[in-house]
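Hey, weird one. I pasted the O-antigen polymerase sequence into the form twice and got a warning about non-standard characters only the second time. First submission, copied straight from the form history:
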Amino acid sequence: MIFPRLVYNTKAKFSLVDALEYILIFLVITTTGAIWFRYGLLWSVFTYIKLCLLLIGILIIYLKSVLSAPKLGRKFIHYSVFYTVCMSVYMIGCWNTFFYAFIWFYVPLMVFLVLSGVLTRNATIEFWNKYIRIMVGIACLSLFFWFFGSVLKIITPTGSVTFEWDWIRTATSYHNLYYEPQTINFLFFRGIRNCAFFTEAPMYAFLLSTAYIIQRCYLVENRFISTVLFISIITTFSTTAIIAVLLFEGLDLIMRKNSNRLLNSVKPLLLPFAFAIMMGIISFIIMDKTTTGSYNVRTDHLVGCLNLFIKSFPWGVGFGNRDLIIEQLRYQQGLSVGLPYFIAMGGLSALLIFFVPCTSYLISAVKRKKWKNVAFVLTFIWIFLCTNVVLTSVLQWIIMSFVFVKDSGCTDF
């Protein structure tokens, strides 16, 4: 059944599993491009930090299995076999990169697939609530420093840091809680982007936009949370994230059936105007972006990755062969797309691993006329399409397992 709107409400005491989940989620967020992990001691042990993230996930699976002995549905087993078969096929054509793909793609995918299977429905909702709480806390902190520091200059920076992100960069620091790594000339604003403590705005915007659509789609409506996340997304000046919000809300508005009969009767007349306004805003944003270098870079990377996917079909060029992909691009300062990069590396196997659960979820939502869920999956595909988080984040695999796969197959859901 489709993910219902509810809030996890229990008087149970804060447990070891709760603490581990908070740690896991915090690491999922911060390993998605936090500046803290890109210089100094933490940069030197970053690989071990990512491995610790997976080990915490495995520990939660063990504790949940011991405490509740969950039963896994057939489709959960089917997906685990399906992923294994896909990776086995990948190994045939890219055996020299199999170890890298196994550690940094297959293992995270399977860990979160199993974790989604051992969590009950309420535990899954609470997991997302924890993610939202942490993201809202980060959003409030970053908005404070962005407005009073970056915009009004009332708060002064406390220093600067030099970090590695594709190349060596420098960012102004505010107590190492907020950094200023990027400026922007976007529509009518010229200034500093709200990047929180991340290396660049797209990484932060990826987390904010996924939090926003999860909150709007699956959790109890909370205007404060939605507003904070929305304002934070705007201050990142990320075209991808802003369009994601417009896309989600526009699709929800168009497809949602209102309880008011009068509104439903006039809705067909109003929808063309609402759709035209939404498309006009999106087009205006995109046209403004075409005057900047980032549009040309992203277009080049999109076309380049798709060409490599076709040329190397069905195997792909191999996970970890980033330099091989960059060599084929005109703009070589780092990849700026996600899904095309993913399928260029993994070929047909990667394409199937991503689109089979997404398509299954989409069909299920359409059949049940759960239009907000339809808006969710289409928006998620857009976000992953335009943001390179393939090997820098595991959040997309969590969403695939906790939402798309779990909705399709686990008995508790």
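That's the output from the first submission. The warning seems to come from a hidden character in my clipboard, not from the data itself. Residues 148 and 154 are 5 Å apart (CA to CA).
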